[in-house]
């Protein structure tokens, strides 16, 4: 996450603004406290692809699974 943000030339606040999230969320992702999931993970993957940067959020990781 940190490498992608630096590649984009953004601060944590700048990336948070682009993604519509909080700076604290970006910080937590970068420190490994949480992983991007759901729409955030998909959006980060798309941003990375457009920036020609090798990054892919792991789909479904960190998401709760619904038991039958």
Task: Please explain how this structure is put together.
This protein has 68 residues and is mainly α. The protein has a single domain (2-50), classed as lambda repressor-like DNA-binding domains (434 Repressor (Amino-terminal Domain)). It contains four helices and no strands. α2 crosses α3 (23-30). The radius of gyration is 12 Å and the shape is globular. The model is unreliable at 60-68 (pLDDT under 50).
Give a brief description.
Helix content is 53%, strand content 0%. It has 68 residues and is an all-alpha fold. α2 packs across α3.
Say what the CATH topology is: 434 Repressor (Amino-terminal Domain)
Radius of gyration: 12 Å
- What does the overall shape look like? globular
The N- to C-terminal Cα distance equals: 33 Å
* Mean of all residue-level pLDDT scores: 84
CATH architecture: Orthogonal Bundle
Please provide the ordered H/E string of secondary-structure elements. Answer: HHHH
The biggest sheet amounts to: none
